[in-house]
Amino acid sequence: MHRNLLVLLVLLSSVSALAGGLNEGLGEPPPEVDRQTPSATVTGFLEAAHARYMALLPHYLWLSHLPPEQQRAEGERLGRRLMFVLDRAMWFDFTRIGQEPLGDAPGATSVSLGQIPLGRGTRDIRLRRVEGPDGAPLWVFSEGTVRAIDALFEEHGSPLLERLPSFFFVRPVWVLELWQWLGLVLLVGVVLLASQVLEKWAHWLGGRAARLTKSGWDDQMLTAGRGPMRFALVALLGAAGSRLLLLPPPAQKAVDLGARSLALVSAAWFVLRFVKLSAGFLEQKVVEQAGEDVGRARGLRTQLVVMRRIIEAATYVIAASLLLLQFEAVRNVGVSLLASAGIAGLVLGLAAQKSISTLLAGIQLSLTQPVRIGDTVIVENEWGWIEEITLTYVVVKVWDLRRLVVPMTHFLDKPFQNWSKVSPEILGTAELYVDYRTDVAAVRAELSRILHDEGRALWDGKVQGLQVTGFSERTMTLRALVSAADSGKAFDLRCLVRERLIAYLQRQPAGLPVVRAEALFPAEAVESRTAPVLPSTGGRNVVAPGGRAE
Question: How far apart are CA 20 and CA 25, in angstroms?
Fold first, then answer.
């Protein structure tokens, strides 16, 4: 026991001797050197290093193992190298660095600031507590850390830094020196040029490979990648090239954040372009295969439009979420929101019930397809064509060029007319009120002439007919039935048939309705009771034989 006590006394005396002779070659430290606590030592060293007060750096290092005449020069060199290593390989959390002169633990003589990779292992960066001339505790970087500075600099630094002129290392702007700002500018130019060259080479190589295949999907992928690929290359080359500038952790973190954000934007851009080009390519292929099956082509176009909008919306949401999750503040907000997910989910579910039902109605409409883009419909007593289908509403182009915006749920909850659900072909009618003496066969022949002559560009040649569909006490009703390729041509053809048949009836002596009235004399009252009564309508009065007025 006495022997162990003796050894302990010898060690304490040696430590005291070393403390008394701390960095004897440096002389008295300047007043601005504060080494009373671990936190003060780290802060003072970094501030002096970043301000390029090189004469202060040796006072924060344990240099007693060096000859006194070498301590100042070696201390400045080692302090400068340690600054580069700490700025690029370690991130300090000052809330965990001791704020007490004796350290956080009673009797502690050293404090670990963290570890830095070195070779296949790590090197512990430590502070050592020594006694000052007045007996007060002082904290400096330990001897082991100082001895490892050169090895750490060889791995995390660059000999080029010590060969650059001194004006490149004046007081930094933000956390970067002048040479690093110049390096970033040069890096941006090189990266932009290299990305263009690599993109052109990649497209040339991809184009040659695409020509060897019969599929058109690879062509769409190459076209979609023109542009997004350049952004992705800029992000990759920029993140890799910034490592050569030995940026400090805050700057490197900002560069990596920008590179990741640019990569996410390029990926989202590529997906949006590929979906758009693929939809057009698929629609073109189906149209070529369908031939005259216009309904099938319109149905596929409707499905592609709705599904494309769904994918685009999902892409925007996912890309925005990934971009926001990169920021610590947003992540903390997200965690806080997830903590109250039960109440928030209930509130959002009730508030967004209508929106969600509308979105689901859009998906259902794309699958069931009660309407398709290009269909002729009558909605809310308005006749028009389906011009646009979104996830929440449908745009109907009315015949007078107005736009009727209809909620998506309307087509699932309320009845409407779709004139081209199965086929765009449609039948049209034109009704005429004529006199009973009109020659129906002659009118039917005139209708045939009109369709084969004036209406040849509108009539599809499939259906024509003229029938007596009704009568009253004064007139009879003729209905002309014609067919057309679509509703627009059918409307124009109906108007043409009406116009031409009215002109034909005007030229006939008994074509238009007349008013028939019978005047009875007293002597002929009994006889007239047995006379036939002819229909009468608005028109002209004519005196007929036998005392009747027409």
Answer: 13
Task: Find the DSSP H helices in 131-177.
Answer: 143-147, 149-156
User: Do 299 and 272 have their domain in common?
Assistant: yes
pTM for the full predicted model: 0.51
Among residues 372, 420, 367, 424, the alpha carbon closest in space to that of 394 is found at 372
DSSP 77-98: HHHHHHHHHHHHH----GGGS-
Same domain, 199 and 116: no
CA dist., res. 44 & res. 86, Å (int): 14
* Count of domains forming the chain: 4
Closest CA to 49 of 172, 189, 168: 172
| Residue 350 placed within a domain | yes
Task: Single out the residue of 390, 422, 423, 384 nearest to residue 404, CA to CA.
Answer: 384
Tally Cβ neighbours within 10 Å of residue 450.
Answer: 23
Model pLDDT for residues 490-521, shown as the tens digit of each residue: 889 999 999 999 999 888 877 777 776 666 66
Q: Distance between terminal CA atoms of the chain?
A: 152
Extract the tokens encoding 528: 């007239």
Q: Does residue 431 sit in helix, strand or coil?
A: strand
**Eight-state DSSP code of residue 99:** -
| Residue 5 lies inside a defined structural domain of this protein | no
Cβ atoms < 10 Å from Cβ of 148:
18
CATH number of residue 383's parent domain: 2.30.30.60
Residues 434 and 458 in one domain: yes
Q: Could you give the percent of the chain with pLDDT greater than 90?
A: 31
The secondary structure of residue 65, as a DSSP letter, is T
The parent domain of residue 409 ranges over 343-422
pLDDT at 73: 92
Q: Is the pLDDT of residue 125 over 50?
A: yes
Provide the pLDDT for residue 12.
Answer: 43
What is the pLDDT at residue 124?
92
Asked if residue 194 and residue 272 are part of one domain, the reply reads yes
Is residue 434 within 8 A of residue 442, CB to CB? The reply is no
Give, for 347, the enclosing helix (H) or strand (E): helix 341-351
Element (H, E) at 117: strand 110-118
Same domain, 308 and 184: yes
Overall residue count recorded for the chain in this entry: 550
Q: What is the DSSP letter of 474?
A: S
Task: Give me the pLDDT at residue 358, please.
Answer: 66
Cα 174 versus chain centre, distance = 33
Q: Taking each helix axis from N to C terminus, what angle separates 294-324 and 353-368, rounded to the nearest 10 degrees?
A: 140
* Per-residue pLDDT at 547 exceeds 60: no
| 221: phi then psi, degrees, rounded to nearest 5 | -65, -40
When pLDDT is cut at 50, 70 and 90, the band that residue 183 belongs to is confident
Nearest CA to 482 out of 468, 498, 471 is that of 498
Find, among 526, 542, 540, 434, the residue nearest to 478 by Cα: 434
Domain membership flag for residue 338: no
Q: Say which residues have a Cβ less than 8 Å from residue 524's Cβ, sequence separation at least 6.
A: 547
**Residue 283: per-residue pLDDT:** 74
- Nearest to residue 372, comparing CAs of 298, 289, 469, 461? 298
